[in-house]
Design brief:
Strand content: under 5%
Radius of gyration: 24 Å
Distance between the termini: 34 Å
Largest sheet: 2 strands, antiparallel
Order of helices and strands: HHHHHHHHHHEEHHHHHHHHHHHHHHH
Number of strands: 2
Length: 667
């Protein structure tokens, strides 16, 4: 990976002076905390009760972006008119935004809703036919989940009148266990991004397209009452089209005579009807794709089509790998493990590229001062000293390792699982930082990666149960704290945010997010009954994973062909990186390979293609000036899609309407 040694003016002395953290004010942190709680209350209610689209399901963090647009475009200008000192500065608005995107990775798909359904499912759905009482329940330690069937029954059927409310006594130990574990996981992720900020932001100068969206919204906000973006006609032109479509979708739900507007076609089957291609038009994805590099956006949709064609060819010639493909992975077993190999190679190359920096961080960890010899070792401009960040990283990693071993996962299996999980989280964070793909996921999960690396006998029955419970936080990969933290450290660039208070603001968002989402999820399920609320697929997938591995042990005949495709994926990624860095004419960016065949990209690829085509045409005929001029319109695409969904969520909540799904991102 090419490293640029040049430094811009804000990379030198003045930036160090900005480390006072003046923009991490008490009012900014307070507002960020309040909105973080609001997101973690509103999102579970919207998803579970109203059956609406997820506010926090993707890396764009739609709920946070909605609130941010309202705050910057409406609330802050009103405060300026009333009394200008009341208004937030742009740096303070970034603090609020960062706390919201950190908290957005927690409430539903990211952790909490999946977790409670996973913990209660074996005790509510146990029957004589599935024999879970003898087969599954003994594998779950009592300190991880309440074993009283009445606790699970109340969760799914609701509590009777006068029962005394949520059985907190049964939940207090599991909540303490899972809360401490997940807090350590999230701090581990944040510490990783603190350590990698300098090589990613200052040396390699990654674009961070998702971080550019709030910066574009904030441009000029300190100088003007209303930011220039909201006074740009092109922004409102772009806003109008998706907003109108969202209005029609919602009206069709309420009034059947209003025509339904379909923006997707999911019945395109090729290769003798063995592979499905989805054509889905989503203006938020188109808008985000406009901010990607042309090479990146081209590679994303190209590698998706290439991966599906590879699966189709395998289907036509009858090539099969013993066993079956796992849920939430790629379109075939071969592509799932090929994508994992690509992620392993990506992370290996990335760590090799910044090896000198990592050595300086390691040396700084053993010194009382975080500063080292040379500019690259200076940690005075980081939100944590390298010494603190390194020990935080190590302490969290050790705690997470010991905790997983205590749940019944053997030490070797724990090591493989954590390496797999860390590689996937870090690879996706890199994809988000370099490619800015707001709607994606991995092609492999760390749970099947562990089993298909070591075999089910080495993992053991208790280990398999532990892996099943880890589906709560390491499964769908549609949103992670690590990717949010990557954008957060980028947003500190050139502002008065480089201070430990910024780290503590992120940690506070994590704690408040977990607490608010936990209370809301338990309250809704024990009040309405979980079987009456929206059902998530991950909890059933988690325990099917355990049943499948108990009944169909994994041996070398399953492992060998999968490892071959892991090696193939790693070799392909290494080759793509080498080609890109040695031939300027090479058209494919390696970022597209590890995510191209993910199930989320199956929905997003066509909109990425449209964004790529639009940007290519604009560049071709108007150049860079035309690209800059058109930026507001594509930001309007994002805002219109999100705010259209927000309007119906508010209307549905007021009217108590259920099932009015106005999608914000992918389905």
């Amino acid at each position: 990976m090419t490293i640029s040694k040049s430094r811009s003016p804000q990379d030198s002395g003045p930036r160090r002076a900005a480390s006072s953290g003046a923009d991490v004010s008490l009012r900014a942190v307070g507002l960020g905390a309040l909105l973080s709680v609001a997101i973690n209350v509103a999102c579970p209610y919207s998803v579970l009760v109203l059956h609406n689209a997820g506010l926090t399901s993707d890396y764009l963090a739609a709920g946070a972006m909605m609130l941010f647009l309202v705050l910057v475009g409406l609330v802050n200008p009103l405060l300026k008119i009333i009394h200008r000192p009341l208004a937030l500065r742009s740096g303070e608005l970034i603090v609020v935004y960062v706390m919201m995107i950190i908290a957005s990775a927690i409430p539903t798909w990211g952790l909490v809703t999946n977790l409670f359904h996973i913990l209660t499912r074996p005790f509510y759905y146990a029957t004589p036919e599935n024999n879970w009482v003898e087969l599954v329940q003994p594998l779950i330690p009592s300190w991880l989940a309440p074993h009283d069937p009445a606790v699970a029954r109340g969760f799914y059927e609701g509590l009777p009148q006068g029962s005394g409310g949520i059985p907190w006594g049964a939940w207090v130990v599991p909540l303490a266990a899972w809360g401490s574990f997940m807090f350590a996981v999230y701090l581990w992720m944040i510490a990783t991004m603190v350590i990698l900020r300098k090589p990613w932001v200052d040396r390699e100068r990654l674009v961070f397209p998702l971080a550019q969206l709030p910066l574009e919204v904030l441009r000029g906000t300190d100088e003007h009452i209303v930011p220039p973006l909201f006074r740009n006609a092109l922004f409102w032109v772009g806003f109008a089209l998706p907003f109108a479509l969202q209005m029609l979708r919602g009206l069709h739900h309420y009034y059947f005579f209003i025509p339904e507007v379909q923006t997707y076609y999911d019945k395109l089957y090729l290769f003798r009807d063995s592979v499905r291609f989805i054509v889905f038009v989503n203006f938020a994805i188109i808008g985000v794709s406009y901010f990607l590099g042309l090479q990146v956006s081209f590679s994303i949709w190209f590698f998706h089509l290439l991966g599906r064609c590879q699966t189709g060819v395998f289907n036509l010639i009858g090539y099969e790998i013993k066993g079956h493909n796992e849920s939430l992975t790629a379109s075939s077993t071969a592509l799932s493990h090929q994508g994992m190999g690509a992620m392993l190679a990506l992370v290996a190359m990335m760590l090799w590229t910044c090896r000198d920096h990592l050595r300086r961080v390691a040396r700084a960890a053993w010194k009382r001062s975080g500063a080292d010899d040379g500019a690259d070792g200076d940690d005075g401009e980081e939100i944590l000293s390298y010494r603190t960040a390194a020990w935080l990283w190590l302490g969290c990693a050790v705690f997470v390792f010991v905790w997983l071993v205590a749940t019944g996962l053997p030490p070797l299996s724990t090591a493989v699982f954590l390496i797999g999980a860390f590689v996937i989280f870090l690879a996706i964070a890199r994809v988000i930082a370099q490619g800015g793909v707001g709607f994606t996921s991995s092609t492999m999960l760390p749970q099947p990666f562990t089993v298909y690396t070591l075999g089910s006998e080495a993992v053991g029955w208790k280990g398999l149960a532990s892996l099943s419970m880890s589906y709560s936080w390491a499964a769908e990969m549609r949103t992670t704290v690590m990717a949010s933290a990557a954008n957060a450290v980028k947003l500190t660039d050139g502002r008065r945010l480089r201070h430990a208070r910024f780290f503590w603001a992120m940690a506070l968002a994590v704690l408040l997010g977990m607490a608010a989402a936990t209370w809301t999820t338990l309250h809704l399920n024990y009040t309405h009954g979980g079987i009456n609320l929206r059902q998530f697929g991950v909890p059933s997938i988690a325990w099917r994973f355990l049943e499948d591995k108990l009944r169909n042990p994994i041996g070398w005949e399953h492992i060998e062909p999968r490892l071959v495709f892991v090696a193939v994926g790693a070799a392909m990624m290494a080759g793509l990186i080498w080609l890109q860095h040695h031939f300027l004419w090479w058209p494919l960016h390696y970022i597209g390979l590890p995510i191209g065949d993910s199930w989320v990209m199956g929905w997003a690829w066509f909109s990425v293609f449209l964004g790529w085509m639009a940007k290519g045409i604009i560049f071709r005929f108007t150049g860079s000036n035309g690209y800059k001029t058109a930026k507001p319109m594509f930001l309007g695409f994002v805002a219109g899609q999100l705010m259209g969904g927000a309007v119906w969520m508010v209307v549905d909540a007021v009217l108590g309407e259920v099932g009015n799904i106005v999608y914000i991102g992918v389905r």
